[in-house]
């Protein structure tokens, strides 16, 4: 899956993204790099144009890349937060998501990031979840989505969605387990002192 360059994970950041949606998965994947036996994963952040962004509660992030120079990814993480609302209304952004989908093996959303996936048509006819306050909005964006109101995350192969905020950590640990091994995921969990479900 990675060739010789290692598994590449990109976290898309934007104004109004929820802090823990970004830094929770980032911490998991960065720690994974210290424990991986085979995949040599690396994680970086990127914004639309490479400029700094202000997250939902005021944390400022200077991403490593812009969308044009982040390069091909094996996993895309798309956070939620109130900043998803303007993005859902931008036809160009939704088309970008559809194009990224064609070349990225795993697309994963945290919290209301699923709303952007839904608006782009990436969840049509598929099981998915989001923050519990937004189940109805997810269904309104695409009535064909099979909204799971119980799961912390839903893994539908090439598209993975998670419930609200801290569930992004659960989803990230799941991806470590899925893409490498249970033992490596357990080692990451121990190192970040995140309790098992």
UniProtKB/TrEMBL annotation:
A GO MF label: lyase activity
Keyword Lyase: yes
Alphabetical keyword list: Lyase
Signal peptide coordinates: none
Presence of keyword Glycoprotein: no
Gene3D superfamilies (UniProt xref): 3.40.50.880
Every DJ-1/PfpI domain range: 8-177
EC number, as in UniProt: 4.2.1.-
Name of the molecule in the record: DJ-1/PfpI family protein
């Amino acid at each position: 899956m990675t060739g010789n360059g290692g598994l590449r994970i990109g976290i898309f950041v934007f104004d109004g993204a929820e802090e823990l949606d970004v830094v929770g998965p980032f911490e998991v994947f960065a720690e994974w790099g210290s424990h991986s036996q085979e995949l040599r994963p690396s994680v970086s952040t990127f914004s639309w144009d490479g400029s700094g962004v202000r997250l939902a509660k005021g944390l400022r992030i200077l991403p490593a890349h812009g969308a044009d120079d982040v390069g091909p990814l094996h996993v895309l993480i798309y956070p939620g937060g109130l900043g998803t609302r303007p993005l859902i209304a931008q036809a160009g952004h939704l088309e970008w998501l559809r194009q990224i989908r064609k070349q990225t093996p795993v697309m994963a959303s945290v919290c209301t990031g699923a709303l952007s996936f839904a608006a782009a048509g990436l969840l049509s006819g598929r099981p998915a979840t989001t923050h519990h306050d937004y189940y109805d909005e997810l269904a309104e964006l695409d009535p064909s989505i099979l909204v799971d109101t119980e799961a912390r995350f839903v893994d539908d192969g090439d598209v993975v969605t998670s419930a609200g905020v801290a569930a992004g950590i659960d989803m990230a640990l799941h991806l470590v387990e899925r893409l490498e091994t249970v033992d490596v995921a357990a080692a990451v969990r121990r190192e970040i002192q995140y309790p098992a479900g």
